[in-house]
Amino acid sequence: SYYGNLVKDILERFLAKGALDDMVAAYEKSLNQDGGEKPHLRLAFAHAYKQAGQEAKRLQQLRIAANLLPKDAEMRKEIVNGYAALKDAGGQLAAYLEWSKFDPQNLDVYAGLGEVYWTSGRRDEALRVWATLPQVRPREAEGYRAYAQKLVFAGLREEAAGNFRKAIRYRPTEHTLSAELAGLYEALGQHEKVAPLWADGEAACRKAMLDFGDDPQPWLNLARFLTSQGRRADAREHLHRVLSKNWPRFQSETYQDAR
Q1: What 3-state class would DSSP assign to 91?
Q2: Could you give the CA distance from residue 130 to residue 111 in angstroms, rounded to a whole number?
Q3: Would the pLDDT of 2 be above 90?
Q4: How many Å apart are CA 151 and CA 104, to the nearest integer?
Q5: Residue 111 phi, psi (nearest 5)
Q6: 254: which DSSP letter?
Q7: Quick one: pLDDT at residue 3?
Q8: What span, in angstroms and rounded, lies between the C-alpha atoms of 225 and 208?
Q9: How far, in Å, CA of 142 to CA of 238, rounded?
Q10: For the packed helices 89-102 and 55-68, what is the interaxial angle rounded to 10 degrees?
Q11: Half-sphere exposure of 257 (CA within 13 A, CB side)
């Protein structure tokens, strides 16, 4: 915009004089007197600090702007990635904690926060943060799944299997979720648990096909569960039935699987 470009031009003039810090300080002093914080000015300051090659100061301005624009998840990601590039774990932690206040149901926030703790050697704290993932969305599969994946990463595979099972309770027809647990069972040497997993998925899909006939996902996942059981001919026959449905978005995917 014209106004935004004008602000950037003024800032670059201050930058050329080495007076950017003075301008930011003057602005913050005016806030103490009058209030009225403006995110576009913080973004302009951040742009100017980028031009000056002062990354830490740029990120500080972005953090202030992000708190004024709480729905801007991309800016939050830019901030935590910026601190990661600087190898500033303290900055990353502070940025993630700020983000969690504005977006408390975002699983990526808690997953990322735990990763910073883990790489900083604070593994107990990482595990405590990751344990909140199912609590963030207690009636959805994704929280349990995210926690299970972190437990696999941490080498706690038995605990991970339990959380994958909880995730499957909320999404019993999703083949990729069952496949993650099947792979874990194989790694644990619990091969006898894999076949029942595929059979349960097949049964869940068949029930969902009856209960929610217009939903294509259980139809497509049934073919995958059949294939995982070695029943390729049954899967192909089933996919030809799917092709007769009026689900254009799935035609190409289904045709490839049916070949």
Answers
A1: helix
A2: 6
A3: no
A4: 21
A5: -65, -45
A6: H
A7: 47
A8: 14
A9: 28
A10: 10
A11: 26
Token pair belonging to 119: 């790489």
Mean pLDDT of 91-100: 96
Q: What is the DSSP string of 134-174?
A: HHHSTTSHHHHHHHHHHHHHTT-HHHHHHHHHHHHHH-TT-
Furthest-apart CA atoms within the chain: distance in Å:
76
- DSSP structure class, residue 213: T
CB pairs under 8 A, 24+ apart, for 8-17? 8/44, 8/47, 8/48, 11/44, 11/45, 11/47, 11/48, 12/48, 12/51, 14/48, 15/48, 15/51, 15/52
Please state, in angstroms and as integers, the Cα–Cα distance from residue 71 to each residue in 39, 41, 57, 100, following that order: 13, 18, 22, 12
**Residue 238, CA distances (Å) to 32, 208, 250 in order:** 69, 15, 14
* 3-state helix, strand and coil shares in percent for the chain, rounded to the nearest 5: 80, 0, 20
* pLDDT(162) > 70: yes
Determine the distance from the C-alpha atom of residue 29 to the mean position of all C-alpha atoms in its chain, rounded to a whole number: 38
Instruction: Lowest mean pLDDT of 4-18, 128-142, 234-248, name the range.
Output: 4-18
User: Region 90-118: what's the mean pLDDT?
Assistant: 96
**Residue 174 in contact with residue 144, Cβ under 8 Å?**
no
Three-state SS string over 36-49 comes to CCCHHHHHHHHHHH
Q: How many CA atoms lie within 13 A of 244 on its CB side?
A: 5
d(CA 36, CA 68): 11
| Across 144-152, average pLDDT | 98
Give one word for 155, left, alpha or beta, with left for phi > 0 and alpha for psi -120 to 50: left
Distance CA 47, CA 118 (A): 32
Q: What's at 128, amino acid-wise? A: R
Ramachandran assignment for 54, one of left (phi > 0), alpha (psi -120 to 50 degrees), beta (any other): beta
